[in-house]
Fold these 3 entries.
Entry 1:
Amino acid sequence: GELFAAMASAPHTGSGSALQTVMAQQLALMSQQIQLLQSYRGAAPAARASSVAAPVAVSGTAAAAPATAPVPSAPAPVVAAQGEPDTADKPAMPKGFGPQLSREERALTKQQQDHIHRLIARYNARTMKSKLSTQAHRAHHADPRTAAGFNRLWKEMVYPIVIERSSGCELQDIDGNHYIDILNGFGPNFLGHSPPFVSEALKAQIERGIEVGPQTPLAGEAAKLFCELTGMDRVSWVNTGSEAVQAAIRLARTYTGRNKIVVFSGDYHGNFDEVLVRVTKSASGVRRTFPLAPGIPFRAVEEVLVLDYGTEESLEIIREHADEIAAVLVEPVQSRRPDFQPREFLHALRKLTEDEGIILVFDEVITGFRICPGGAQEYYGVQADIATYGKIIGGGMPIGVVAGRARFMDTFDGGQWQYGDDSFPAAGVTFFAGTFVRHPLAIAAVHATLQYLKAQGPGLQEAVNRRTTRLAGELNAFFKERGLKMHIPHFASQMFIRVQEEGELATLLFFHLRARGIHVLENFPSYMTAAHTDADVDRIIAAFKDSIDEMQADGILQRPVPVPAGQQAWVRGVPLTEGQREVWFGSQLDDMASCAFNESDSVVIKGPLDPARFIDAVATTLGEQEAFRYRFDPEGQVQYVDADAVFEVPLLDLSGLDDKERAGRVEALLEQQALSPFDLEHGPVVRAHLVRLAPESHLFVLYCHHIVFDGYSSEIVMRRIAQLYAAQGDEAPASASVPYSVYAHATGTSADPAASEAALDYWRTLYAHVPAPLELPTDRPHAALRTYQGATVHRELDPELFQSLRGTAKALKTSVNVLLLSCFQSLLSRLTSQEDLVIGVPVAGQAHTQLETVGYCVNALPLRSLPDHDKAFASLVGETQRSLFDALDHQEVSLGQIVNGLEITRDAGRLPLVEVIFNYSSYFSALELPGCTVATHENPRRAVYFDMFFNIIESDGRLVIDWDYRSDLFDRQTMERWTDHFNALLKGVARNHSRSIGELPLVDEAQGGEVPEGRSA
């Protein structure tokens, strides 16, 4: 249009000058077109030159072309793509499409230049056949991957590594080089390359035949198995994740009769036009949707609203335009921002879409089966209407899945009908099909993969997640130590290696890694798999460290800032976390207060144990953990690592004593350990004993101060001891846990101040009016000053009751944890006649941060409940579940920080806000020692900090209660009676959960009678 307008407006002169004029104008226009093309590649849009006339109107009635995109007179949606804008209004295409062609000279030092030249020479020598292959086929093979990451500075290394063989997590290129793969096909190879069971399934199917078109027998079986594992009603198979998303959008529009689709900035939903979108926002707040890449018409995205992920504003926009929106499409964990997990937002989005009749679609192409068998929906506790899947379940074969509730999925085939009657497919349908849908080879791979995932259970994902956490945690600590801004955020087995803040040259890290045998691509997520071992993780970490050493030595990356003389480096002196400081202060009150923080476990071992080997495994495990080497400064501000700490594990032989004397000696040992305070300043902070009770009976006793140890840590330590013992002198795998300093720095006050402040605001609002303290019917009144003498009531519940409670929890659509917490809230309300309670609920920081570490990571969240005695118990369960989710979304602050932010009247004899703790744990997996049976339990307390700590443990299909209490307030008989009440209440809930809280029994209904409420209980 500009060329013709300029030609039409050119003044007519003599022939010679006219030719010159036209040529001059054409040259000027060509220059402008080049500028426009450059802006299309990613530079700023070129301004229109004043010498080029504006387009000429073809009709006297035609309106002049607007300077900006037209704004409709009616109120416009906040987010809209309003037709094809003028060229001047089209924003530049984002960087990343096509090679970087800038010829700008970079001021490199000679050392940097030499580094790049050496790296190119080494890289080319190692991978020359890949380079030659790429060049040989460039003329006839149009492959975007061959130009990905193009940069003139290292043009000679821009080619893909050509792989000819793979197995597990290893690749072999055509030069014969071996690699550990952490790209893993951009996500699908969760089980490694060519899993044997998938290969066998493919071979068997090839022998049977590859029938494209007819129905394959495994399609229905695989669909049934998929529904069993995910809880979805119905499944439809497609070829790719992109096709799955496309099908879900079409389904949603058909079902709702609406057209608009909501997606979120930063999501990736495939490669079809409608989801390759981006948004611009004007100063007045008006959003406009534009194509993300060249070749996509503007009209292709005009029914797509692009909103910010995780914001209240986005929820408000959806609410305002609900009657236009067919579906909200969510990538629950964004591949390039895996550390952002807005749980509260997703719960609010779920409720909003339900209320407004909008279909909620979870894109689980990456997250499905990765974090846990139920994917992101299980992880967040949010059930989508439709979900799309792919990648993992294909076992390496191309596959896509649309799954969801039957009423939505019926849109594909009309729904349920049967033969022999007048039924028919009654649901309205849309069209979606494909030649290779249900391809026999793909379905065979899916069926084999689903069978494997079902057989392995959640332990498969948990193991991979632990290795990923260790890898990311150790490398992030190393980056921090080296003064680098690099970071590896991760979610489950998914990582993103973020180097951009270090500048352009930091991209060379990926070439260094490939030169060292780590297969990875810049600007793409990385993935760990079930095929990776601890030794592989060690090699990956070593490759990163060696690469960064070399890059820093030559100035490619900034060098670490020297630590001034006399100051401790951060890895040597670690600031206490907020929670640790609270424990430290509590420990300083007196010796009994310190003993209240003595955490302990005992392990009963039956069988032919090798004591020397076991002691060696224990000492090695304790020595591996940074937290057990900590020594604390007298002010409680910094913890230092004692590199010379020695961990002794004495063997106490009681096998020659009679039963009574032996039992007395064991009880004396436990009491002596429970009442011996730890010296936090000089150490040690851990004590371990092995007791021989008989030739094939041993007791392992472990005591640690809470400031370096919690319940989650106990599982890590016990699992590691068993692992080292089982190695029997063979090379043991490396520890999967990360140093506590990694956790401390990841959760420090400067980690995310905005999240901490938002969490504090939540708790301030919740406790704007603080409820009265819990008035339990004590046997003795609270003293003017607190004391810490304590004891424990231990009770094992009927295994059949546990199974009944599981069924009740399922019927109420909640977890056993929430059900038991609701029962405990009901009991306390009945004992106190109070209907506004606060109970502390500990949460594991390791789970929240996905950092597998030993140390104090627990945080007690003050959960408020309103157990009105006339309220239906089922309603309390729902309220408790919502309260717990809300609390988990605001756990970035400690209990002490919450209390300090509230208006609470203090009493020296009582704790503020939280005096009772409820803890449900199922940490202890079945420990395995070769030839032995093992049983783990917590030891009785002799000192306690809170008035009551109600610990209920799931172990071996049963529930065990350890109820710690302050013995200066309560008699044992009282606590035993209250345990009976709780047991009776559980049985009552299991029989009939539809009763009100006031109707729940406190005495076993089978025995008759009832206990009145209040202090007489």
Entry 2:
Amino acid sequence: MPTLLYVFAFASGFAALGYQVAWTRMLSMSFGSSTLAASAVVAGFMGGMGLGAWLYHRVGDRLASALRAYALLELGIALSTALATLLFLRLPPVLAALASTAPGFVDAPIVRVVSVAMLLGLPAVLMGATYPALCRVLIHSADEVERRLGWIYGINTLGGAAGSMVAGFAMIELIGSRGTVLLSNALNLIVALGAFALVGRETRGTRAPDPSEVDERLPGGLPDWLAGLVLFGSGLATLGFEIVWLRALHYVLGAGTYVLSATLSIFLVGLGLGGLLSRTLLRLGRPEWSLGWGQLAVALFTILAIAAEHRILTSPALFDRISAFSRDALALPWLVSLVTAVGVVIALVLPATIWMGLAFPLASRLFVRRVDHLTARAGLAYLLSNLGSIAGAIGAAVFVLPTLGSVGGTKLFVAVNVVLGLLVLLHGGDRRVRIGAVVASLALLALAARLPERLAFSPLVARENPRAVTRLFEEESDLGTVQVHAWQGRPDALAMSIDGVVIGCSAGWSPGLHSKQLILAHLPMSLDRDIRHTLNLGVASASTLRTLARYPWVETLDAVEINPAVLRGTAHFPDAVVLEDPRTRIYVEDAVHHLLRTTTRYDLVINDAKQNVKFGGSSKVLSEEIYRYSLERMSECGLFAQFIPTLYPNESLRLILRTFAAVFPETEIFLDAPSAIMLVGSRCPIGGRTRPTREALEAARAPREIEDVFVSDATALPALWVSSAAELADAIGPGPRNDWNRLLLEFWSMRMPPISPRTIAASMRLVQPVRAEDAPPPWLDDVREEWQTIQLINEAMIRVNEGDPAGAEAIAEAAQARDPDHPLLRRVLR
């Protein structure tokens, strides 16, 4: 029977991580992806589990059959998680309704935290209670405490690692968050039915004594306060390390969803293996020695891990071979990159996490003391550890990373482990052990002090030009590492990056990226003269916001930025003066949360959130939910503008277009070739509106900028139009959408082949269909000549990227004959 119960523990852990992965995604739709939202989920989940473990002995011990109690818990988990999931799915409309009647109430952080805790409460309490319940079923003597306590924890944690891996790599993509919950429900039901079946066998056989009936003491030399402190402190350090390492590993591995899932799973594998190994160490005797030296071992391997990562980042040979940001890595097949990343995580993370995993079972064993106190003391140990984990997770995200950074945070948590290990060994060791503990602790602190102040990470262009590019600003947090760089001697060449991806720049850094920032504002403003109230999702260099501000008829300039470090970095850009404009209102929060809670109706919403085709997080800002929430906050005929890189392969681009067109009844597509596709959506027809006159554009100081970069006549900017969603319906075809239930783009982006010019050409070819008539739609009749010239230039750029320079040259010559000075010709001729 013990073997089957261990299988149940594994399956239960698998299901628990399935719930956590799925619920985190679901709750981000209601509360956003901010630090507070993520911390609320962690606190609600772990706090509930700790509370359930602590309360178990008050209720579960009253049932004569320990197996029946365990079976009822698993059944309760299946039912309560199914109910909680239904509530999660109904939260967004409920919050939207509340926002319109009581916006201050919905906006209160305490309301969001309490809401999450209430929704997660019952399922999490029941999950936590399964740990002491299994202890009661499997442990009936002091010997079994030594043999089985760590195995229950270890096997359950390994099940969680498997659940995290399978959910992150397969379940979410194939069956979605809701399907993942249903599969986890099924696992809990199977476990419950299996446990009920064992109850029948138990009643027919000889029942083992209940641990509450066994009067046996366990040897150990630690007082309760110290064992409890280690439980809390090791939980704090473990979750603190997890948050810090996830940030630090970004600098080598990037931010892909597969890498994140693999990292979390390997972290849990280490903890689980540590739990299994605790049995071996307990057989050696003196568990307090194993616990103390284990804490010092955590500190040692953590120091070595950060030192090794620093070596990777500072060694050109290692960086080019290992880092996801090297040019060599960008050309590798995705599976090779993933295997490399997993190997790096195993080498850096696994050794320390195995020692971390030893802490809970060893400290719990010392904390239990008596077999007849097993469920009460094991439950209290679980609660103390989880309270420490909550403090570590929230503290690392909210305080440690923004204040100390990943290296400083590592030093802090190393110090926690060193202090815990030293206290245990000073209290429980003989004279030689005490001396060795002091020497080892001082040596570890000295090693930690020698770690660099920061990890040497910069965007590739800064790394390749260390003498020419200067770092002006850097701030690290769980939301990303924000940096601002500048070319020396060129004040107009600045760029802002997050985790190495440039998200905004001034004109001198990258003409292509800067033109995207400008057209996001100029294009919708050129389509509708009646835009008064605007919302930007993202700030970065503030170029888009500053461009909007130049239009004197715009009355409000709202902007949402989730990362406060971005706003501090924005101050280095000349366009940051727009932040002082009295029309400007900046909201430091998640875009989803703002769209759910605001009561403002916007005439224009610009989605300028961070995008990178190899970054799975882009899938959220290109999701059906973001589009739908935006549409619900737009005025009756308001516009929504979105830029899409032409680097997406056709399958992904079709997914994006299909999702966009499913939300916006009217969708028009514009091409800022060769790099950007512009989508504009609305409830009302986009063409035929009152467009600004040249005099109005001159009042906005727009003509020169537009005519230098995009078109010959500033009033003809809509001539960048290439198609409508209705016209492309057959090319887009039927198929899935990118919604938050599955976020297909998140997974597809990780499996993208290396980007080539032909990818860009195929994207442009998809949105610019060949027409039988060389004429735009009627609402563009007044810019027909400009439109025809641009169509030729676009075709020339497509031919260039298809590898047909002769064809491109012939078409470019035809365009040049029509308009020799057209600004887009420079993009072909260069």
Entry 3:
Amino acid sequence: MRIDSAQKGAFIPRLGKNQYYITSPPARSLDLFNLLNFPSNSKGLSEYKPRLLISTTDAAVQQQSPRSRSPPRKTARLEGDSDYASSVKRSSDKGKGKERTDATDTLSDGVKRLTVINPPDNTRSDSYFNSLLRTIQNGIHSILVPPQRSSSTVSKSRPFIDEDVFNATRMIVVIAGKGQWVYDKMQFEIREATSGVNKTLLSHRDLKSEDWLEELVNATVWFDKCIRLIEALLTYLDLVFVPNKADALHVRELGMQIYRTQILQHDRIRSCIQDAIKGWVNFERRERQKHPGRQTIVTLVRLLAEYSLFNELFLEPYIEATRRFYSEESERLAETLKDDQNSFLKLCAERLQEEERRSSEVLSEFEGDWSEIQKTTERALLDSRLHWLSLGIESAVNAKSMDGLVRMYSLFSRVDGLGVLCGAFKDHVRNVVLTIVNDKERDEEMVDRLLDFKAFIDTALVEAFAGDKQFKNAATDAFATGFRVRKIVPAEKIAKYLDRDMHKDVFRTFYHKALAKRLLLQRSASDDFEKSVLKILKEQYDPEFSMGDNMFRDLALSRDLMTEFQEREARSAEDKFDQPIALLRGLNVMVLEAAFWPFSTKRSGEAVLPTPMAAALARFEEYYKSKHKGRKLNWDHSLGTAALRARFKAGEKELTVSMYQTLVLLLFNDQDEIVFPDIKEQTQIEDGDLRRTLQSLACGPKKVLKKRPQGKDVDDSDVFVFNAEFTDERFRVHINSIQVKETPEETKRTQGAIEMERKSLLDAAIVRIMKAKKTMTHQALINETVDVMKKHFQPDVGMIKTRFEQLIEQEYMRRDDNEPNKYVYVA
């Protein structure tokens, strides 16, 4: 900080104690513009000489604090300096040249020291400082004169006034230490200026709101510029006085506080601001176009943010205007569009887009407040009308309007209304299904109509409802409820539809596989229901479905067989007791005839059972062969189950597991941890089955084993450890095995088996026909074959011709020698 003496000299701190540069301020007639525009032939700054290092004991300098000192600098000065310090120097040079020479000493380090002769007198009277204070006050006053009242004279002399104010502030604040004088005068002038602005704004309230608001914005921008200039001129006040005064504010802070209090937070002005904001936004919403004065609003938003009044003066009235406008519009549209909910929702979507654009353009620096404005708009438009709007889903579904459904889902999700929409969706889907099923006059079209409707609903669930599980479950329940109204009729019509449009043997094959799994894994809801469906399929679809009856017969015979076996073993137990007999008490074997069950018992190897289990199965096999001579049993352990008692730290549990899971768990009776290759070697379970089994035990929700390292996949290097910490609230714990889905290769094998069966069926049918007819023409034989086989599948004519050629080669029939188009049966 530079410290000026009472004379025109100035001392600048530099390096050591009591060592200073002495400089002089610029002459009154010198300004920056003239300095930078010297002629090219002028000596310019080359004539400005640096000052010598001097020593002084000036009391005013010694007392200044380190905070008030400025870094060393040089001050430019013209040759003809007329300031006081220069004149003192010249007079000294004329009369006291010898003294100046004698005043020069040389220190030990070679630095020359000069002693100032006749140092300047720093003392000044109060009248002098009062004069400087008037200069400051007049300067501030001239700055705060509104633009329309400023004279050109003041404007032209502005640089000189600003320099006077700056230097006077330095003298009073730094030298005299009377910063409070300047602070009070500044505060007084700012209050006077803002009072004038207040009166002007209030007197113009009869203007249009947009014109009045523009006047306010212009006044605020003007005041902001004034305060910035005053802040620059009173720099010493900010740097020296304010930091040492507890309750003092910096110049800009004080100015903004006064303007905020007297202008922006004035009751009537605040009311006018809020009314103008509401008028602007209501115009844009009503006319659906930009207001001519929007730029004024953008500037106002920025200014209010600077004064920390954005929320109070803009956001709150803006949101209130939003709520009121859209609530009234919602009520008006609902009255106008009584039966056209989709048009209402379309308008709502457009309004939300408009609000989003307006927020991005007007409130680009306040993105955090966009969501509140959007939420207010959404609630005002939709909240009280969700039930009525949800009825619009009927027309959207009936018209198959995917855009309408997307719009509904999007808007309802914004106001937490998906539950209401889902309920309306479920009701409508159920009503449509009921209508189709109950339309007896169009029974033959029932399945086609249901499939068409189901296809659209499935597409809507993905594209419009984003795969929402709530809507998926609602659609499933709605279809199921709709089917029940006529109970058996939909199933009958679906069977006939399959009869027309599908190959019965393909459907029958895959249906038998699914039925077999349900029965063996005991996942069927009801055996009686399964039998009733089989009866319908057998009577109205394909007699070959009688294979299902054979499945139920095998299960019934197995139950009877096990009852006899257990009774025999019970009688045998009276004579002897051993481990196999103990295991036989819970043994339940299902003896299935391979021809009726769609499973293959051919495996690369057979799992190794523990000795007690193997002995129990051997006892049963011995019993079975004693009753059925010549029969052979092939054990399929992949479908077996077992119940195990396991002891954990939390207590004993009964685990219901598959046979493969049983074989793995029993290994841990002897070891706490086992690596994968050892488990595979000891159980001899096929690799794929073993990996799935270990996943179910160590990676599923019920981890009775731990796997190292952790992960979902089972690698050859994995180690498995018994989990003694396993807990479950139930005593009986069921651990599901991982059921492998049918692979494309398996599906291909199944289809290949179907093709082979078709060939056999065609051959048998053709031979039967020819045996009965003896001779037939080519076309007649084709027609007869198609008619016979349509109960099983719809044969392709090309396949039938191929079978004709095969039967001729096999000598089941031949072509007539005289008529090649006729076939003759060969006995």
